[in-house]
Amino acid sequence: MKTKKGYKVFNSDLTCRGFQFKEGETFTHDGEIKLCESGFHFHENVKDLFNYYSFSSNIKVAEVSAIGKVITGDDKSVTDKLKVVRILTHDELLNLVNTGHSNSGHWNSGDWNSGHSNSGDRNSGHWNSGHWNSGDRNSGYSNSGDWNSGDWNSGDWNSGDWNSGHWNSGHWNSGDRNSGYSNSGHWNSGDWNSGFFNFDTPPTVRVFGKEIPRKKWDDAYKPTFLFFDLTEWIDSGKMTDKEKEQHPGHETTGGYLKTLEYKEAFKLSWERADPEDRIKIKDIPGFDADMFYEISGIRID
Q1: Could you give the strand order of the β-sheet that contains 77-79, starting from the edge strand earlier in sequence?
Q2: Residue range of the domain that includes 81
Q3: Can you tell me the distance from the alpha carbon of 300 to that of 66, in angstroms, rounded to the nearest whole number?
């Protein structure tokens, strides 16, 4: 009979459903075998283990061999004769489930991911296909919320960029359910709207509380420091003891993805900007130093 290789999860004492196993030994089940009911269950694909178990220090995973009758389902199998070949180390298990590098989660094909099912890089959430995401189900970049397909979003369900609200498909929206640009209200499909249920684009734009001709705003230079990330990768060597305690996976990933508060990220971008670029903020139409401080936390004389 052909041997079939697989993997099996045990409790820390090598028991499973009350049955005591031992590394290197073979065990036989008497009677009929049936998926999910009777026999020794195992998984041919190591990634399928975590469809049923949480990854933790309370479990052990072993390489096993089915050397008897085998019945195979969608993501697991059952046999009447099973050999526990050897217990896998933590590092071996991570290497088997991850195809990228330095990942501490599961099913990651990118690099330095501490979450699960990530195909991008430096993600600490789950199901991310972009890069530098700390939320879940993001396909863009530098998102700290969830379900974002755009970039630099701190809210949820955004498909645009730099949104701090929810369900936005445009850019720079701080309200909810906007499909236009630079909207601070709700349910707007036009651009630069601060009210509700608007589909037209007003001829002026409110900038620092003043009505500015839209073309003047469009043509104005926007300093590059205004476009910043809400997440930042922190290398292990720069982590505090508290951060290391909160993110134990840093030893594998080489660090962790830190989510920044809005003003914190704004200030970091300002501090790292070219001094000549900083001063150009004053050239923005309608600039108001006090309002800029309230928004960014940055005081400009």
Answers
A1: 40-42, 77-79, 70-72
A2: 4-96
A3: 71
CB-side neighbour CA atoms (13 Å) of 108:
29
Residue length of the chain: 301
Residue 25: inside a domain: yes
Domain assignment present for residue 292? The answer is: no
Position 189 in a domain? no
Q: Is residue 61 part of a domain?
A: yes
- On the question of pLDDT at 262 being above 60, the answer is yes
Q: How many CB atoms lie within 10 A of CB 102?
A: 21
Tell me how many domains the chain contains: 1
Q: What distance in Å separates the CA atoms of residue 115 and residue 252, rounded to the nearest whole number?
A: 12
Q: Looking at the DSSP assignment, which residues form a beta bridge with residue 30?
A: none
SS3 99: coil
* Contact predicate 295/289, CB 8 Å: no
Cβ neighbours for 277, distance < 8 A, ≥ 6 positions apart: 223, 224, 225
Rounded to two decimals, what is the model's pTM?
0.52
| β strands within the chain, DSSP E | 4-11, 15-16, 19-20, 26-28, 40-42, 59-66, 70-72, 77-79, 81-87, 204-207, 210-213, 231-235, 255-259
**Cβ–Cβ contacts within 10 Å for residue 233, how many?**
18
CATH number (domain holding residue 77): 3.20.170
The pLDDT value recorded for residue 14 is: 94
The CA–CA distances, whole Å, from 264 to 152, 193, 223, 288 equal 14, 27, 18, 20
Edge-to-edge strand ranges of the sheet holding 26-28? 4-11, 59-66, 81-87, 26-28
For 153-163, write each residue's pLDDT tens digit.
777 777 777 67
- Residue at 119: amino acid letter: S
